[in-house]
Design goal:
5 domains; Arc Repressor Mutant, subunit A; OB fold (Dihydrolipoamide Acetyltransferase, E2P)
Length: 721
């Protein structure tokens, strides 16, 4: 099939047009000249067209075959994504295309790819349970140009043992080319990627220090994930040029809310305050909630150096002893932050809720505000739950507002849960450090009514903003959570059925039914385990320019609006909201511009978010194993939190730490894994280990490099079984 009219595509031809033509009209892979002819590319523009095709090929959106023909991966049983390598040598392709299953890749089919590489995989087998197997046929992009690890000397060569267990190959280093001493943590730049004949090669470019130096864990993680540690000088200079005093002309044009009782509620160590809240009880009995968000978009304009730096980072990253902010401190902790008793520019969302907690009215306003108080979560708990007389007296003018907020937040939460929103109340770890940065404890972070207030109010504001923009047909970045995979959901239902809770299988399991399960197990010893198993059955939330709703929240429209200091998508939403408020519905030209821009921004921000979350988990994991090193031989009480064919994972009660009892250490019988019942069962004794069961364990081994903790099982007398 050929195109007769030369005016079908207007040059320059876009990526979208090329991909759409190959998807709808090309029935086999095409040579570059064939594709150019069919798309009626004039000779004068062929060079630009070749560059476009190269970009699509490098990105994996097209695949170049033998014979120099180009085709779409999906039409050739190929998938593009990031490789996730397991420490044992095999890997999984994490597809870029939404809704596609992960693909298992055996070690012999990894084709020398390293963890994190962007690769093309040929899918060779799909089982009945939809699990897929494949092999890597091409490496599109190497993820690592530098590797952090421990430097060692061998007989014939030096090498760096990668810090991250997913990077399974040592990096060969030329001897006498550096000043590192064995055992030190270094950064090696890769000068040669692995081949069939040799390991990757590199050179040491930085010596970080010794494995137990204060702050070394954070430095390792920052280098491994290639987070920018400092802002370029020109970005800092641009931030410094921003006036620290708000122009009077800007104050005049805004809604003045400086006399309103509004305040921030954050953690004890927070320095960047995105949001403040206010509340009023109206004459008609309704609540009027105010959510006031720092107007970062006033200071950070599209195309500026600050904007480019914020986009590259995507979000702030938080560690136990420091933060890597998305914006320079002059903004994040300064003029943008809603610091108490200081005038600040804000975008305010004012929502009126009726007695059934329906948002019956709402308005948006460019405002100027002045926070009257910087509350911590602990202070709010002292006022609302503990009724601490000293704290209540100190803030007596705001106590009535806080009590109204408590009432509204609980009603909003009940309404949300009743519609099917899933309430995951999983504890988060909190690392306690001493003055020298040494971990002295790992506890479960407290959650109480103060956290609920902020959570419910931010959810409400995000929903209202998303619905308003969507109804106005303004393209935007949604926060989506796709419906779960049916097979994984069925496995979850099979699991809970063995706990005595049967849910009738229907074509579609609703959020409300899942929430009823969580409610059923509320307060049960297995509550946390049920929540964890359900979470594993669900997909990850992400950013997208296409709306598929938010499954876990049971929300048809949802976005992120409330944290523009630390999340780039929120900054984009602020700009779109202001554009709609000031200019009205966008023109066709503007819609086309946004349709081109928003998808790549959403994908990029999803990637930076996942990277930050993984890095934060890595830090917690390192702190856990280092904390347990000096406790070898000690006995602890724990709860079986997960069961596999190779053993029992036990979470300690005194510390938020998890370790493994390997099945080989259970010497009193041969144990087999019952997947449906999620238990290990002794063949002779019928001894059964089940999720949620309390056990006594002894700490036998701590492997800091692999971030692994080994326990052995003790009987009630503290004797090894």
């Amino acid at each position: 099939m050929s195109i007769s009219s030369k005016n079908i595509f207007h040059m320059p031809v876009s990526k979208k047009q090329v991909l759409e033509y190959l998807r709808s009209s090309a029935h086999h892979p095409l040579l570059l000249r064939e594709l150019a002819r069919r798309l009626a590319i004039p000779p004068a523009e062929r060079r630009q067209f070749r560059r476009l095709i190269r970009e699509l090929n490098q990105a994996g959106e097209l695949v170049k075959l033998k014979g120099h023909r180009y085709g779409l991966p999906a039409k050739m049983n190929l998938m593009v994504g990031r490789l996730q390598v397991h420490p044992d040598g095999f890997g999984f392709l994490i597809p870029e295309e939404s809704g596609k299953p992960d693909v298992y890749i055996s070690s012999r089919h990894l084709k020398l790819a390293m963890d994190g590489d962007k690769v093309v995989v040929r899918v060779e087998q799909i089982r009945r349970d939809q699990r897929a197997k494949g092999r890597i046929i091409r490496i599109l992009e190497h993820a690592h140009r530098q590797v952090v690890g421990r430097y060692e000397q061998g007989y014939h060569f030096d090498y760096v043992v990668p810090w991250h267990p997913n990077i399974t190959q040592d990096i060969f280093i030329p001897p006498h080319s550096h000043k590192a001493t064995p055992g030190q943590i270094v950064v090696a730049e890769i000068t040669g990627y692995p081949t069939i004949q040799r390991n990757p090669e590199g050179k040491i470019i930085e010596i970080l220090g010794n494995p137990d130096d204060p702050g070394i864990d954070e430095e390792i993680v920052i280098r491994h994930y290639q987070f920018p540690r400092e802002f370029p000088a020109e970005v800092l200079a641009e931030a410094d040029r921003i006036p620290k005093i708000i122009p009077s002309k800007e104050i005049t044009r805004r809604l003045d809310l400086r006399e309103l009782h509004l305040f921030t509620i954050d953690g004890q160590t927070a320095k960047d305050f995105d949001d403040a809240v206010s509340i009023e009880k109206l004459a008609n009995g309704n609540f009027r909630l105010g959510v006031h968000i720092a107007d970062v978009s006033y200071y950070v304009t599209p195309g500026s150096l600050l904007d480019e730096a914020a986009y590259r980072r995507g979000n702030s990253v938080y560690f136990t002893d420091r933060a890597l902010p998305m914006l320079p401190p002059a903004l994040s902790n300064g003029i943008c932050s809603l610091n108490p008793h200081e005038d600040r520019l804000s975008i305010s969302v004012l929502i009126e809720f009726d007695s059934a907690q329906n948002a019956v009215n709402f308005e948006f306003a460019d405002s100027i505000i002045r926070s009257c108080q910087r509350f911590t979560y602990t202070q709010i708990k002292q006022i609302l739950l503990d009724k601490d007389p000293t704290t209540c007296q100190r803030h007596k003018e705001l106590v009535p507002d806080l009590e109204l907020m408590q009432t509204l937040a609980r009603k909003l939460k009940n309404r949300r849960i009743n519609r099917g929103s899933l309430d995951f109340d999983l504890p988060e770890p909190e690392v306690i450090l001493d003055m020298d940065g040494v971990t002295t404890g790992i506890i479960k972070r407290e959650r109480n009514i103060s956290h609920e207030i902020i959570e419910e109010f931010m959810l409400a504001a995000n929903e209202v903003v998303a619905g308003y923009l969507a109804q106005a047909q303004m393209p935007l970045i949604y926060r989506i959570h796709e419906e779960p995979d049916e097979i994984k959901l069925k496995e979850f239902l099979d699991y809970i059925s063995h706990l005595g809770y049967a849910l009738p299988l229907k074509k579609r399991i609703t959020q409300l039914q899942l929430q009823q399960i969580l409610t059923k197990f509320k307060g049960n010893p297995k509550e946390q385990l049920i929540t964890m198993v359900l979470l594993r059955s669900l997909k990850l939330a992400k950013y997208s320019s296409d709306n598929s709703g938010h499954f876990a929240l049971a929300a048809p429209y949802y976005t992120h609006f409330t944290s523009p200091i630390r999340r780039y998508p929120d900054l984009v939403i602020h700009r779109l909201l202001r554009e709609l408020q000031h200019n009205g519905q966008p023109s066709t030209v503007r819609v086309n511009e946004l349709t081109e821009y928003l998808p790549q921004t959403a994908e990029h921000c999803s990637y930076t978010e996942r990277k930050a979350e993984t890095a934060e988990r890595d830090i917690i994991s390192i702190k856990r194993v280092k904390f347990m090193r000096d406790k070898l031989g000690e006995a602890f009480e724990g709860i079986i939190s997960s069961i596999t064919s190779y053993g029992l994972y036990v979470e300690l009660i005194d510390f938020y730490v998890t370790g493994l009892i390997h099945v080989s250490s259970l010497t009193d019988d041969y144990y087999h894994f019952n997947q449906l019942q999620q238990s290990l069962v002794g063949k002779r004794t019928q001894r059964r280990f089940s999720l949620g069961e309390r056990v006594m364990v002894r700490l036998d081994k701590v492997d800091v490099e692999r971030r692994f903790i080994d326990f052995s099982l003790l009987d009630k007398r503290g004797v090894s079984r």
